[in-house]
Amino acid sequence: MIRSASTVPVEHDAPIPTWIGVGGRADTLARPSTSAQLAECLAADPALRVLGDGANLIVDDAGVRELVVSLRQGEFTEADLDAATGLVRVGAGFDLAKLIHATVRTGLVGLEGLIGVPATIGGALRMNAGGTHGDIARSVRRVHGLQRDGRPVTLEREDIAFGYRTSGLEGLIVTAAELALRPGDPDAARAELKKIMRHKSDSQPLKAATCGCVFRNPTLADDLDGVGVAGDRVSAGLLIDRAGGKGLAAGGCRVSQRHANFVETAADASTADVLRLIDRVRTLVRGRFGVGLQTELVVWRSAR
Questions:
Q1: Of 126, 165, 216, 282, which residue is the catalytic one?
Q2: Distance between start and end Cα atoms, the chain
Q3: Helices and strands counted in the chain (H then E)
Q4: Is 41 a catalytic residue?
């Protein structure tokens, strides 16, 4: 437990806000504003969970016993942009979209391809957020964080195992990052932002309650007629669509008719419904194409 004399704001039986809008509550939720307060939280519960934007997160219906920590305040939401050098230092709780717009206004480019990806900086780094237009790894210079024992650590870009939707940062509590951007044309960058957002608005269910893309795009082990050849990374949404998965439902959730890699939830949906639907989609795609789908989203199940 966090000591009664602690200055860390704490809530009990707190809701865990997620984009998909289902799941249980946190026994305890803390809101540290400094790395020292975060270290205090780690001392209280080294197995704590860090809540970011909640975009690719679903929480077990029974909730979470471990301490949940939000970094959406204090030093974790600060950002410093140097227009001359292109160096951006930003806290883990800073909103990715807000940072992209701030860099473009400053005349720095390199992040605009990530517009429309919902995440905090910490979450974006941990999952190496990205899409058709690139990922955040290409802009990273170094990452700062705390180990589970509270010790600070700084990792240079070459020491981070970035890959497709992975980073190797799972054991680290990210507190801040330094990004290397470059001077560019703000007008061209703004035009790129608008183009990407129009495409996403046309192709994704942005107004529905979803958890973002559910599955990672798989790499084919064998040639697949009409889809790709062995070694190609192909769209999970395309496979689900061609397998007849659009509209597939379980309880209060269904596969989106607009984009098959999204699950939409109704007010009466539960996490159990979502997980059951995910299993049904996996079975459908494996039966149709022989391809196994891995989830991109994170599922919180209490370990105690």
A1: 165
A2: 15
A3: 6, 18
A4: no
